[in-house]
Amino acid sequence: MIVPFSATLPDDLARVGGKGQNLGALTRAGFPVPPGFCVTTAAYRRFVAGCPTFSAWLDRLDALDPDDVAGARELGAAVRDALLAVPLPEEVVGEITTAHESLGREHAYAVRSSATAEDLPGASFAGQQDTYLNIRGGDELLAAVRRCFASLFTDRAILYRARNGFGHRQVALAVVVQRMVVPDASGILFTADPVTGHRGTLTIDAGYGLGEALVGGLVTADLYRVDRRTGALKELRVGDKQVAIRPVPGGGTVTEDVPEDRRRARVLDDAAVAALADLGARVEAHYGGVPQDLEWCLEGHRWWLVQARPITSLYPLPAPGPDDGAVHLYLSFGHAQNMTDPITPMGRDLWRAVFPIGKTRMDELPCGATTMVDAGSRLFLDITPVLRLGPTRRLMFRIFRAVYPDVGARLATLVDRPEIQAAARPRPAALGLFARMMWRVPLDIAWVLLGARLEDQPAWADRMVAARVAGFRRAVEAEPPGVARLRAARQALTGLFQVLPEIAPRLVSGLLSLGRLRRRFADSPYAADVEALQRGLVGNVTTEMDLRVGDLADLARPFPELRAALEHVRPGELHRLRELPGGPVFLDALAAFLDRFGMRGQAEIDIGRPRWADDPGLLLASIRGIAAHGDAPGQHRRHFATLQAEAEAAAQRLVAAAPAPVRWLVRRQVQCVRHCLGLREHPKYLFVQCFEIVRSTVLAAADALVRAGRIAAAGDVWFLTYDELLELAADANAFDPRPRIVARRADHEHSRHLNPPLVVTSEGEVPARPVPKDLPEGAIAGLGASAGVVEGIARVVLDPAAEVLRAGEILVAPYTDPGWTPLFVHAAGLVCDVGGMMTHGSVIAREYGIPAVVGVGDGTRRLKSGQRLRVDGGRGIVEVLAEAAP
């Protein structure tokens, strides 16, 4: 039940906990660690076995709501009281006493909790259990160990486990007993910058005495930021260190005032900073390059390490990294598509087949070109080469300013750095692919702006999408099922971006026209009319889908029994609705809807996510929520017609207000906005239909693997790469895919808890977002994507399948895509963590005429359902007017 640090094993987590395992590893590697031993989890289990009510308490903890802070506090106190009434078993007391004597009873010790779910790569649990310093004497040591055991059930530890998916029964506690160091200085060292994520920056916090003053927030520590490449001190902030905590000879600690002349003096000189930085780099190297969070002490001229753990807050580096020795810039593909969930391995693999755009065959990919990389189970686009050429750089920044201002602002702080300018320019082959595909676009833009019949553009887009999908289907289904069809599906997907030269001129023409109109009427009474042009746009396929959802709700609204049944019906039981009043008509309409839009769904850019045709649960929940509201039948269509009428009236005012010589041009620009901007959703509509053909092909191959016993379920196939699937389909004796699937599923689930950055460098740096100077206190800044001001009650929705929006509420979401649009029917406003001017939520908000602020970063964490908000879609500001009622 006792293990010295030097006798721990590399896989000893379950026996000595995270802290004990890390201290043991440092000791075995020869790093300066004060000697000590671990009281193992076997001793903890022997201890809790003496509490007759312990199992019942665990049952109550397992049933606790992760958000029930008061309940956690009450239950935690009760469990701790029950455990503290139990004595340590005699055999545990005997072994601790023997170990204590062997280390020396004359020394003082730190007694620290070490949980089995602690200091892990995915969760730190830092500070969740108790620590006791300067413990002297055998009785005091035993009492501290018992209190540490009980501290596994502090309310903060209970809630942390519940919210991070760690079962209370699966976690156990060991205790680290470590000889006390009496330091002159102590602090924390991060081998990467914990704020920006920069792996090339090492940061040190330092204060006098024991580190408890720093950790407890009693002092403002010195901050040292070191460039790891050169060893230079990049930043020094000397803190006001008013107090220091020091051990007392008889046991315990005391807080002392720091003399005035030392409060604003440096704790560490340059030589000490360099020595500590070198120590941190060696520890990181020992852990395979994983950035570390270290606690250190300086006693005289001797350094000690008293804790090491991975930095769990860092977002993973993009991989594969650059091979040219330079620093590269990456843009989140998920943010650009307004979907920040992790993407399955198969989904990521197929998007890499699509990029870079311009190619028509897989073997046309330029040698060595890595356009898309992985990080945190998401995809990131390497935009560095494009930013290295003057013309493409200017074009990119112009697009960012118009569509995604936040990206431009962040990139501007990075792009001129020498280490980024050293990156390779775009390969001629890659530029050739793009130029060969897009050379006609400028001519076509001129044609659309000046000569095309604009009223026909939405119908043309519908025909174009239908023809492309039909051609895609023919190319895939011309091959026999199995390997040949799988290859054909990926080949067809590879050239799908060839649609861009056809659709881009229409979209660009609409955007150019909108920009011209904004500039023309910027300082006039008609500026609001320019923005009103975007309401009720003609030909938006997602808006059409939304209106048809409203039609389905109208069919269900008169029938309470049918509405109630929509809440619980399973995909295979839809036919049972036919037995209810109103059921036959509703089911026929639903079937027609799914025939047109069944390939859509939440997070649809991931081919591994269910579609509405697979599981219409989200769709039915939205229909039920809309139907439960007391709107008159057809109200949604009347509202949309009103928006269209308002936009047409605004168009007439703009034309009438234009000077006579340019009135024809303004009329043309107005119509270009009305009839071309609505086509923005057609490319994605095309993609998801083609993805569905690929998806069906992959699932057919997966079913064959299930029948052969190679995989357990068809859904497992999404955790393979496409080449792995081809290998399995071609060779019955190929590798066993199940271990890979299990590991990738676990990695995918872990990635759900990561917060992906919008922009990141190959060194992990996430540039800070510029904060508006006129931001009201406590307000959240974002991008104003749909003008107007609204006040209302917030509804934070993380999963649209689990929430229904009530009329007049403000939707607060991590992102929105077409799978979320049924919620827009009732939304009075929109606040989105991600997004730009032309991302899904922004376009739909403008069409519906509701104020929207997108790209706020962390709105779903900072805002709470029930709060009263003011959303200013013009200034891009969200204010909390009143807290949520209990």
Q: What do these coordinates show?
A:
- This is Pyruvate, water dikinase.
- It comes from Nannocystis exedens.
- It holds the Pfam family PEP-utilizers.
- Among the domains are: 329-439, no CATH class; 541-646, no CATH class; 780-882, Phosphohistidine domain (Glucose Oxidase, domain 1, 3-Layer(bba) Sandwich).
- The two termini are 47 Å apart.
- It has an eight-stranded mixed beta sheet, with helices on one face. Strands 9-8-7-6-12-13 form a six-stranded antiparallel beta sheet. It has a five-stranded antiparallel beta sheet with strand order 1-2-5-3-4.
- The radius of gyration is 31 Å and the shape is globular.
- With 886 residues, the protein is α+β, with helices and mostly antiparallel strands.
Beta content comes to: 5-15%
Mean pLDDT across every amino acid position: 88
For the termini, the CA-CA separation is: 47 Å
Shape: globular
Task: Write the SSE topology.
Layout: E1 2-4, H1 13-28, E2 36-39, H2 41-48, H3 54-62, H4 69-84, H5 90-103, E3 109-115, E4 131-135, H6 138-150, H7 155-164, E5 173-179, E6 185-190, E7 201-208, H8 212-215, E8 222-227, E9 233-237, E10 243-247, E11 253-257, H9 260-263, H10 270-286, E12 292-299, E13 302-310, E14 329-332, H11 333-336, H12 345-354, E15 372-375, E16 378-382, H13 384-387, H14 390-403, H15 405-412, H16 418-421, H17 428-438, H18 441-450, H19 457-477, H20 483-494, H21 500-520, H22 527-532, H23 541-556, H24 560-565, H25 583-597, H26 617-628, H27 635-657, H28 663-676, H29 682-707, H30 722-730, H31 738-751, E17 759-761, E18 780-781, E19 783-786, E20 789-796, E21 810-813, E22 829-832, H32 840-848, E23 852-854, H33 859-862, E24 868-872, E25 877-882
Helix pairs in contact: 3-4, 4-6, 4-7, 14-15, 18-21, 19-20, 19-29, 20-29, 21-28, 23-25, 23-26, 27-28
